[in-house]
Amino acid sequence: MSQQSQHILTAVAWPYANGPRHIGHVSGFGVPSDVFSRYQRMAGNKVLMVSGTDEHGTPIQVQADKEGLGVREVADRYNRVIAEDLTALGLSYDLFTRTTTENHYAVAQEIFKGLHANGYIFPKTTMGAISPSTGRTLPDRYIEGTCPICSYDGARGDQCDNCGNQLDPIELVNPVSRINGETPVFVETEHFMLDLPAFAEVLGTWLQSKQGEWRPNVLKFSLNLLGDLHPRAITRDLDWGVPIPLEGWSDQANKRLYVWFDAVIGYLSASIEWARRSGDPDAWRQWWQNPEARGYYFMGKDNIVFHSEIWPALLLGYNGQGARGGTAGPLGALNLPSEVVSSEFLTMEGRKFSSSRQVVIYVRDFLERYDADALRYYIAVAGPENQDTDFTWSEFLNRNNGELVAAWGNLVNRSISMAAKNFGAVPEAGELTDADRALLARSRAAFAPVGAELNRSRFKNAVTEAFDVVRDANRYLAEQEPWKIKDDPERVKSILHVALQVVDDAKTLLTPFLPNSSNKIHAMLGGTGLWSGMPELQEVEEGGRSYPVITGSYEGGARWESTPIRPGTPLAPPTPLFRKLDPKIVDEELARLGE
Ligand SMILES: [Zn+2]
């Protein structure tokens, strides 16, 4: 690679720990961010990929109430489930942590204090709910009523689950306490607001500089938001979250930082935690303060506002770069996102995913029945990259059987088994024909365009172009028919040499998408050592709690280039790479979907 090695932060949206995640979630933030990170590592860049479970806020409390458990127990349970599932999917996080760590509390509070010191946070008296019978504060989640926006009658005091809008309890029509059904009384309560209008100008300049770089839908959406920026509450009447780090506030059990405020800071706190665990506590600065570093944020489209507007505003405020000026806090000035990569939504057989209506397939259940690479491939080639997209079991079956098994698996299998059977090793090529040279040149030439698509997060184009190499190689074998040549072993050697070289190239091109099968092909072709590293769970402890983090060593041998295969390398008969699925799985899976 002629290009110099860059520091690349892959900041992946934080899954919310109130339940297991389904394939719609991982198609939005999970697989795309991993494909991107694996490619960047192969291209020689220094990647830091971080995320974790988002564990504060009302929905976890609601889930805890439902299960009759404490909030920590619920957070612990789903943190573990989610970490296990993302590991099984092969997502190569350098650190996947959680928002309930001491480190995260400290970093979230530090950002709050920096914003406060620079004048971008101000207190405001609003109306909060109390229970008239007890006189105590009623946290938002205990108030229910009709949504003023969509008229849904089960909206909560902080959010409407039907239309997704954030609410204030006082906005609800006919609010009632979920504890005893009484009508709450609203009294004055104080909260902190983020002065978003103070960032309108600098955000506008910054967003305009991203023209032609970001996906157009993300940029257009973000620019539209600019015209309507209002101060936004960053604290809440809530007893589960990060305490407010100011005198007179920190000891109030019912005042906490708003969950979205602490969650976006997770990208930074996880980077700082990763550095501490790596033994070099300042290492995170290379990704956050080096002006050459680039930060890519991956999420579903419902989260764009937090990454293109609010998180940049928090960073600008901490740096002292908004309309009120100021100076950077003790951490130093921090880099803004380079790119916000948002996916659209995945639906399931024409319907919205819904856990309550059983229109869902959880990652764990999927991976119990099918291979991780099969799901990764589907998401890359047919996922919701540019538009809302429907997952159907028949398309999953067809792509698995037609593309992975029949096209790619079969190419690998025929080439290696013929060479193993006839020669026991990678054969030497004799004189090459025009067709041989054309195919070799064609697969070598695929690295630049496929790499360019991956670098721009155009995963569908990238995997399609990589698969074109597979199709051309199959066509070449069909035309050359080495199995029919009986009297010219030298020609057979040349054909199989060419085929194996192209298999090796395609293995490399497909590694970001299909790391498990590429690792197998690497071994089949006599490769030694690790090719593309896989994540692992590591049990860590804090405050008497033991929990898993995802980490891994991704310093494998995979490089984004064509590497000549070595004649004479012993070959064993290959084992199948992918499982062919029985068409009856479509009906079985559809029967599992509820109404
Ligand atoms: Zn609503």
From TrEMBL:
Methionyl/Leucyl tRNA synthetase domain residues: 9-415
UniProt cross-references to Gene3D superfamilies, sorted A to Z: HUPs, Isoleucyl-tRNA Synthetase, Domain 1, Methionyl-tRNA synthetase, Zn-domain
Cofactor note: Binds 1 zinc ion per subunit.
Cofactor(s) needed: Zn(2+)
Residues bound to ATP: S355
Keywords: Aminoacyl-tRNA synthetase, ATP-binding, Cytoplasm, Ligase, Metal-binding, Nucleotide-binding, Protein biosynthesis, Zinc
Record protein name field: Methionine--tRNA ligase
Lineage of origin: Bacteria, Bacillati, Actinomycetota, Actinomycetes, Streptosporangiales
Gene name linked to the record: metG
